[in-house]
Write a structure and sequence with these properties.
PRibForGlyAmidine_synth_PurQ; Rossmann fold; two-stranded antiparallel ribbon; Class_I_gatase-like; EC 6.3.5.3; hydrolase
C-alpha cells in the first residue's frame, strides 16, 4: 500500500490517489501526524503548499516527525517519490541533494512543459527510453533547482539526473527551462535509486480523460 502523506496545505494528494488507482496501485492518504501505516510498501510526498510555504517551500513539513519514518522507509529500500512540494520537502529533509528555490521569473508558473528522460535504467523511468520526451504539467513558484557545481557534476557522473527540461524534440535549451533550474534539471535520484524527486506532476498526466498519460511511467515505479 502506497502511503500518500498529507500535510496542512497539501492539495495534490487526491490527484495522486486517483492516478494510482487508475493504474491498479493501492494507496491511502495518510495524515502526517498519524505516521506511516504498518502495511506501507511505498511513500509519495504530494504537491501543494504545505504550511503555506512559510519560511521556505517544504521547510516546515520536512521537520514533521513522519519524515523520520519516511527516511527509515527509504533506507529500507521502499520506493519514495516527492512531487513538486513533495520534491521541496524531500530536498529540505535530506532525502535528495540540492534545493528548490524561487523561479527565475519570480512568478508562479502553471503550464505544460517537456522533459527529456536522461536515465531510463531506474525504477522511475524504466517505462521509457533514454532520450524520450514527455509532456507534463508544472505548477510552482519555487521550482528552480540549485546545487553546487561539484555536486551537480557528481549527480551527472552517477547518472542520478532523471529528467531535464527540453524542447519537444528533446533539445535542452535555456528557452525550454521554465524556472531557471541549473542545467535544466527537472528530477533527480537520492543516494538510493528507490528515492526520487521531481517538480513536474506525473500524477496530473496519468488519466485518459485528461488527454495526457505521459506520467504513468513514473508512477509505475511503485509497482
Amino acid at each position: 500500500m502506497i502511503a500518500i502523506v498529507r500535510f496542512g496545505g497539501s492539495n495534490c494528494d487526491r490527484d495522486a490517489e486517483r492516478a494510482l488507482a487508475a493504474m491498479g496501485i493501492e494507496s491511502e492518504i495518510v495524515w502526517h501526524e498519524d505516521g506511516l501505516p504498518t502495511d506501507t510498501t511505498g511513500v509519495m510526498l504530494p504537491g501543494g503548499f504545505s504550511y503555506g510555504d512559510y519560511l521556505r517551500a517544504g521547510a516546515m513539513a520536512a521537520r514533521s516527525p513522519i519524515m523520520d519514518e519516511v527516511r527509515e522507509a527509504a533506507a529500507d529500500g521502499l520506493p519514495v517519490l516527492g512531487i513538486c512540494n513533495g520534491a521541496q520537502i524531500g530536498s529540505e529533509s535530506g532525502l535528495t541533494p540540492g534545493a528548490f528555490t524561487t523561479n527565475e521569473s519570480a512568478r508562479f508558473q502553471c503550464e505544460h512543459v517537456h522533459v527529456r528522460v536522461e536515465n531510463a535504467d531506474t525504477r522511475w523511468t524504466r517505462a521509457y527510453d533514454e532520450g524520450e520526451v514527455l509532456q507534463l504539467p508544472i505548477a510552482h513558484a519555487e521550482g528552480r533547482f540549485e546545487i553546487a557545481d561539484d555536486a551537480l557534476a557528481e549527480l551527472q557522473a552517477d547518472e542520478r539526473v532523471l529528467f531535464r527540461y527540453s524542447e519537444p524534440d528533446g533539445t535542452v535549451s535555456p528557452a525550454a527551462n521554465p524556472n531557471g533550474s541549473k542545467n535544466n534539471v527537472a528530477g533527480i535520484l537520492g543516494e538510493r535509486e528507490n528515492v526520487a524527486v521531481m517538480m513536474p506532476h506525473p500524477e496530473r498526466a496519468a488519466l485518459e480523460d485528461v488527454g495526457i498519460t505521459d506520467g504513468r511511467g513514473v508512477l509505475a515505479g511503485f509497482e
